[in-house]
Amino acid sequence: MSGVHLTPSACLSRATEVVLVGCGGNGSQMLTGLARLNHALVALGHPGLRVVVFDPDTVSEANMGRQLFSAADVGLFKSVVLVHRVNMHFGLEWIARPKRCEAGELHHLQAGTIVIVCVDSAHARLALHKTIVRRRDIYVLDLGNRSSDGQVIFGHTPLDKVQIAERGEIPLRTIHPAESALLPYPYDLLPELIDTSRPDDDTPSCGLAEALERQELFVNQSVVTPALAILWEFFRHGRITWHGAFVNLKTGSMRPVPVPERKAHETDLVAIPA
Asked: Which of 27, 146, 164, 191, by CA, is between 20 and 30 Å from 219?
């Protein structure tokens, strides 16, 4: 039996800040999906999303086809190209940062911010984790894939009472409703994602044919779709009963990750009013 995570009122009553890190295979499609999500939410009366996008890379010919770039984009910064495109199409004012997302960029994060991690190495994830994990009530949506399979995990920074006690921060005040089940932090649930002892394979491909030898054409789309579905449930319906998924294109399967049932000590949380 799965639990239910309730969307904090702060994420429904005001514009939600979203930090998207990475504009490659997953990130480029994620950004387009976020623009569609925002458009639909605003039409339904939600204040919408404020998105900032980080990526230091430029577009290469190998990116065309697998990622949402054209020949005219080659040599330009991925983040600038994609953010300009959605801004023009949807009339937005989202921000592109053609640089790495350093620790200093995340110090201002407010409770309820969603950090979407679309990087391709454990080293990059670990660097983000070291800053994010120190912030309270930050949501993290991690997307990752291999050649034909991948995973999506949506969670928030740890709010376990024991961990908080060790830091001397009781009583705990949080944006999460007291009756809401807490979500596991992605890198607690899947610590291998930040295990830098494993070799990363992030060598750039020289062409599309070589890139397709390493990753199936639609693997990124298959990973991004459940990620967006989770966010849609989170914002549109104010609750989620699953917070991740494992997808496999070879077997045609998607296995959802249910929200864990609420633990007894979670009833001691004191929610911060919106």
From this structure: 191
Task: Determine the residue type at 31.
Answer: L
Say whether pTM exceeds 0.90.
no
Torsion of CA 207, 208, 214, 216, to 10 degrees: 180
Specify whether domain 5-271 bears CATH 3.40.50.720: yes
What is the CA 54 to chain-centroid distance, rounded? Answer: 13
Predicted confidence (pLDDT) at residue 246 exceeds the cutoff of 90 = yes
Q: What are 155's two structure tokens?
A: 């969670």
Q: pLDDT tens-digit profile of 189-239?
A: 999 999 998 665 555 544 444 444 456 778 899 999 999 999 999 999 999
Residue 36 amino acid letter: R
Closest-CA residue to 144 (of 200, 69, 96, 93): 200
d(CA 175, CA 155): 14
Burial (CB count within 10 angstroms: exposed 0-12, middle 13-18, buried 19+), residue 88: exposed
Residue 181 has pLDDT above 50, yes or no: yes
Give how far Cα 265 sits from Cα of 60, 179, 270, Å.
51, 11, 11
Ranges of each domain in the chain: 5-271
